[in-house]
Amino acid sequence: MRIATFNINGVKARLPRLLEWLEETRPKVACLQEIKSQDEGFPGEEFEKIGYHAIWHGQKSFNGVAILADGEEPVEIQRGLPGDDEDEQARYLEADVGGVRVANLYLPNGNPQPGPKFDYKLAWMKRLRARMAELAARELPTVVLGDFNVIPHDRDVWAVRAMAEDALMQPESRDAYFRLLGDGWTDAIETLNPRGGVWTFWDYQAGAWPRDHGFRIDHLLLSPEAADRLRAAGVDKEYRGREKASDHAPVWVELAD
Question: In this UniProt entry, which residues are annotated as the site Interaction with DNA substrate (predicted)?
Fold first, then answer.
């Protein structure tokens, strides 16, 4: 069972590339972030044409997440991250697909830091940890995945100095991420690539893609029940190099049936 995450950076702008990737790689579950579409404008019918059923949580011009499942309807469990009734940003969507709980997230960037955006990021991560504790208590195969906007280690970035002041690499961001792992969740990509050097994002600026100046911020965290089924994980890097591509590449994990 292949489960993937893909920050698409505008579902309408990248639709041809997205459909291309889905048809060529055929993940069972595809979780999208930054769809940048209101609910009524999401192109769900385009995915239906190739056999995918979708649920989505949209927002005009910003954010937005969606879960696509091949050949079956995702069963929606949670829309929006619990813990703050005043938070209206579309950043979290949770569903059951094929016996696996999938939690799709687009974690706040946090820049500039310090400041209110960074405070929001850390508060969001605290709420995420609480929700993940609830999920872990159910003892079901669970994958929490998406754009975490956290570079966990120095080995996860092409140049530490280049990102040293960014919210993605601050000690507070990393500490909040490591607390999730400390609670018993497994970082699939790191587990299979302990030396690092695996990028999932390349900026559009400064020739980052042709120079391979990237970093890893898209993660797949597995509950113990899912980690026991871990077979493979990787990055579909070539899709970043295609015409009108997202600045992220798809990232995936394979679980044994």
Answer: 248
Domain count, the chain: 1
Binding-site residues for Mg(2+) sit at 7, 34, 147, 149, 247-248
As annotated, the binding site includes 7, 34, 147, 149, 247-248
Terminal-to-terminal C-alpha distance of the chain: 6
H helix runs in the chain, sequence order: 15-25, 44-48, 116-137, 160-163, 171-182, 188-192, 224-227
Distance between CA atoms of residues 168 and 204, nearest Å: 17
Residues 6+ apart with CB under 8 A from 41: 12, 58
Range of the domain at 90: 2-255
Model-level pTM?
0.97
- pLDDT tens for 9-52 read 999 999 999 999 999 999 999 999 999 999 999 999 999 999 99
pLDDT, one tens digit per residue, over 205-234 is 999 999 999 999 999 999 999 999 999 999
Phi then psi for residue 250, to 5 deg, are -65, 145
Hey, which residues are catalytic here?
106, 147, 248
Q: What does the pLDDT read at residue 209? A: 98
